[in-house]
Amino acid sequence: MDNAVQLRKIVTFRDEFCYYASWFRWRARMPLNLITFYSMSDVSKDSVFEQAFNPVYQAVLSLAGVVVVSLVAVGVGASGIMEVPARFPWMAATAFLLCFALFNSVFALSTKNMLQYWSRSIYSFLGLALLAGGFAWLLSSLPLNEAGSYRWILIVVTVGYIIFLAMMTTMRRIVEFAQREEWNHPR
Asked: What are the φ/ψ torsions at residue 53 (nearest 5 degrees)?
């Protein structure tokens, strides 16, 4: 194979790659434009973690996850495919509560109004905990006190969530302070 044929193949591959890469990049950005309606930040950004999604929508998404996973698990247990423990809905509720706590804390970094985000976050967390706990109780027929260690797990997740929010707020204030400061290095 001579150099001209190799060069033509490389150029052709490069052109096709650039075409498809630009098409995928355009397609990857398209859903973010649809999601910005639910965002609490006023600037459209490329990364999902640079947007401050409304905590209420995050809680609704987490509650939907609890409902879907719990119903699928109960369906699998009822069909006899495999044995599902009676406390599984409590596990799903605590797992999605932890996911809400982590993602909500990360999204807190990019919000514009921190006080409004905090209040919505706390109320959303409380609502999610009550609704997910109620759904787990309804599905498992076990109150929280009889669900074993899930009571303590919920306490740990709740305290951890408050600590996560405080850490993110502190980090944000430190970064904002550092950006405002003028650095006068010694000569």
From this structure: -70, 145
